[in-house]
Structures are given as C-alpha cells and as structure tokens.
C-alpha cells in the first residue's frame, strides 16, 4: 500500500516530542537575554550598568549564573565612570546582589577601586567594601574582609560600627586588635571629612575604655582636620573649623513623601505616581512660580477659558492651562479643536522652564495623540519628550547631577518608570518614533520580568 505525502508528514510530526512549556520558556529567556545584552551595548555606561543591575535582579533565583555574569560585567563597567558618586551608587547595588552569589568575585570589584581624594563626595572603595562586609554572614569572613578593606584605605564604612560592636559583644579577643587596626592605620594624608567624622565617632563609641587608643584617635583626628582645613582653605562651601560637628544628612524638603505635583497640568495618576516615587533631589523643580496658582478653567466657558490661557505671557503657563481645558472640556470640543489645542500645548511645552512639568506634559501629549489616531503628532511629542528626558536627567558619563545629593536613585529608574507606563497603556515606543536605547533595553527587561513572574524560583 502506498503511503501518501500527507500521511507521511503526519507520521513524522507525531513521532516528534512536542516542546514542553519549560523548554519554550528557557528558549524565550535566552533570546531576551541576548537582546538585552545587544541593547545595553548601545547605551552609555551609566544607563548600561543600570540595565545590567536590573537584569541581574530579575534573573536572581531563576538563573543565577546569568545574574552573576550581568553583575560582574556591570562592576567592570563602573571603572569607566569618572564620577565617584555615580560609581559608588552602582557598586553599592552590584556588590549587595553579587556577594551572596559569589563573594570572591564581589571583592574583586572592590580591590579594583582606589581611595577617593579628599574633595570627593563619595568613596567607591569604601562603599564597595561596606556592602561586602554587610552581606557576609560568618564572623571570620567579615573580620578578614574588614582588615583587607582597611589595608586598601577604606575608612568611611558604615559597617565599621556594627562590626566593632559585634567584636566587643561576641568576639572579645578580636575587639582591641580590630580597633587598634582602625585607629592606627587611619590616613592623615588627604583625608576626607567623612573619614575624619567616622574616626571621631569610633573613638567616642569604642575607645573610651582604652586610654592609649583614645588619645591616639583624638590626636589623629585633630591632625587630619588640620590637614583637611589647609587643603580646602578658601574653597566655596568648605568647612574648615576643627571644632565642627560631624557631618549629618540634611533633609531635603523636595524629598518629602507626598510632594505635590505642580498644579495646572492634569496627569495620568499611573505615571505621576511612578515619577513621584522617583526622587531627583535637586532637579525635580516643584517651585516654578510661573505655573503656581493658575486660574481654574473649570468654571469658565470653553472659549473664555482658551482666551484666558492664551493671554498668559509665559508659554509654560499657557500650556498648563490649555491642558486643563483639553482635559476638562473634552465633551464640549469637536475633534478638530481638540487636535488644534493639543498641537498648541505641545508647541508651548517646549518653552517650559520646569523640566519635570515639561516631561510629564509631553508624555501625556504623546499618549493623547496616539490614542486619537495621530501617529505623526504622537511621534513629534515623543521626540520632544525624548529631548526633555535627556535634559531632565542631565546625566553624562563624566558626571551625573542626580547623584550630587543622593546615591539611592539612578537615571535609569526614570526610564523604567516611563517604559512601564507605555507598556501598561499598550504603546510600543517604536510607534511613537521613540528610539532611546535605554527605553529599548528596559522594554526588554519588562518582557523578561513578565516571562519569569509566574515561574517558581
């Protein structure tokens, strides 16, 4: 009997083992990892490192070898960052995640660092060892890492107090030798003010019962303060008094929980919430007086409201008020007028002096044009948004202003918030002509996260 081609084909297909769900997931994961690596290669180091750290966070527990590789590559890439604050920010995240996976490799990233000079606002070496010591669990490993950190010149570590406290309470034989190591090896050459403050704090908390070490610590701190004062005399903002109190973190009112959005701009609560949780200490311009206290257009007729908005001298105020009109008078406006107002808002938004307001408003306009079937205008708004975004984060590889006041936030987090916003609203960035490499990388990260969400670790 002759077998027909369709029967033969069916027999072949039935003989093949169908791909299991797990195999399909692993194949898709591998593809996404490859695409993420390709995307981050197009990013500048600041954004690329952030991508690698987030990729590792998503993969940890699902694929530790790949997570470790992302973290190691990110750690090596930090050496390209000349700004100590930016490098410290990323090393803190990297070493915190990498130490439980591979402590030896984590410390290799620390030993590649050098002690920051006295004018630096952060010390990558100290931050790196601080995280390493904090993450290590057994006493011998922590103690030995602490000694190695001191030998490298890492003296501004918050882990110092906790480690010395543990030694005093649980490992008495190690307490005095470790304290003596810290006090005796303190660098009086080119000291950072934070290091001096740390020495004074350690003397106060731990050396009071040892007269010799207490005297040595006080003499060393006094000499270090004189050295610091001489090196920084005459510099703007320098603190040179030997009687100064230790440094303290000064609360920035802009960082307060629940900081209000600027009035006059109706914003999506999803994206606004994402932005309000991401705090740019010196860049989130909440106090633009020109968009404060704008007239309420809800009680006016449409034509009167539009005319009142257009009489404002400041373009940002016009844009904010017209956005209110477009939002509140939607039912009264025909499509042609809506489109004309949206274009006018976009044009005026380009002159807004508050970068945070401009960013949010242009994001809403891109979404509005997209939802109203205007892809060309949506692309124009997205291009304006991309330019505003770059101005907002003001982050170059040599220096990132976002890290001046805080090392807890990263420019990449804002891109992630925007990527989440677009994804939630079903907008492909490519449809808007938005081709920021960081956005592409984080779009892929969200896909990877979604893929692994339901997979048990």
Q: Quick summary of this structure?
A:
With 457 residues, the protein is mainly alpha-helical. Helix content is 63%, strand content 0%. The chain has helices at residues 5-15, 21-41, 45-59, 64-77, 84-101, 103-111, 124-135, 139-152, 159-170, 172-184, 193-206, 211-232, 269-277, 302-310, 315-328, 335-349, 355-371, 375-393, 411-424, 437-453.
Protein architecture, described:
- The structure is a single chain.
- Helix 2 runs antiparallel to helix 3 (45-59) and helix 2 runs antiparallel to helix 20 (437-453).
- The longest helix has 22 residues, at 211-232.
- 63% of the residues lie in helices and 0% in strands.
- The protein is globular and about 85 Å long.
- Among the domains are: 141-230; 258-453, no CATH class.
- The protein is mainly alpha-helical.
Average pLDDT works out at 80
Quaternary = single chain
Helix content: 55-70%
Series of H and E elements = HHHHHHHHHHHHHHHHHHHH
Write the layout of secondary structure elements.
Elements: H1 5-15, H2 21-41, H3 45-59, H4 64-77, H5 84-101, H6 103-111, H7 124-135, H8 139-152, H9 159-170, H10 172-184, H11 193-206, H12 211-232, H13 269-277, H14 302-310, H15 315-328, H16 335-349, H17 355-371, H18 375-393, H19 411-424, H20 437-453
Helix pairs in contact: 2-3, 2-20, 3-4, 3-5, 3-20, 4-5, 5-6, 5-7, 6-7, 7-8, 9-10, 10-12, 11-12, 13-19, 14-15, 15-16, 16-17, 17-18, 19-20
